[in-house]
Design goal:
Helix content: 55-70%
Shape: globular
Structural class: mainly alpha
Strand content: under 5%
Strand order of the largest sheet: 1-2
Mean pLDDT: 94
Oligomer: single chain
Order of helices and strands: HHHHHEEH
Radius of gyration: 16 Å
Distance between the termini: 15 Å
């Protein structure tokens, strides 16, 4: 990255008002959208994001670029490549699947979640695309098998607090939407530069 823009450190979080709004939106989505509607939304966002990433030739897809901050994403995420975005979603969606398994079986999920620990590898390449499809397919198959997703146990998200299984499913869809918007900015910036 040739840009010398100084970004906030990973884990710095969202501005207070945006964090409050995002949590309110998440809780509304959890309450008013069905499990199947959330799954369809997640799948649409994932396919759109992957199509956008695939529209870049590999050298550009692996090149970090600084974009304006996207609502719902912290400042440190502004300097990623398209492949880094995909890698981040592989990490997060795989993690939410593990969390969903624990909550669905009424087990305690032992790991504390930290935003800084789910940042992507700068060397992420095009292999991440197939990995994301696999991660989302595995996750949605699990979700499809779990009834209405009303769990008695919850697990804390660093920004949004305690979420039950249905809340985590809503977050998976909302999170993918934010990163699809990020991918749109990355692709537009790369195509404009070249």
């Amino acid at each position: 990255m040739t840009n010398t823009t100084q970004l906030a450190p990973p884990g710095a979080g969202l501005p207070t008002l945006e964090r409050w709004f995002s949590r309110s939106l998440l809780l509304a989505l959890r309450r008013f959208l069905s499990k199947d509607a959330l799954t369809r939304w997640l799948l649409r966002e994932t396919e759109t994001l992957l199509a956008l990433a695939a529209s870049l030739p590999e050298p550009l897809a692996s090149q970090p670029v600084v974009i304006p901050r996207v609502t719902g994403l912290e400042d440190s995420s502004r300097g990623w490549s398209a492949n880094m975005v995909v890698h981040h979603l592989v990490i997060v969606d795989s993690g939410i699947r593990q969390l969903a398994e624990a909550l669905a079986s009424d087990s305690v999920f032992e790991r504390e979640l930290r935003i800084a620990e789910v940042k992507p590898d700068a060397a992420a390449g095009g292999e991440q695309h197939a990995m994301l499809r696999t991660a989302v397919d595995d996750y949605t198959r699990l979700i499809d098998s779990l009834g209405d997703l009303r769990s008695t146990r919850c697990h804390a998200h660093p920004w949004f607090g305690q979420l039950d299984l249905r809340g985590w499913h809503a977050l998976a869809a909302m999170h993918s939407m934010a990163h699809r918007r990020q991918m749109q900015h990355i692709v537009a910036r790369q195509k404009h530069r070249n």
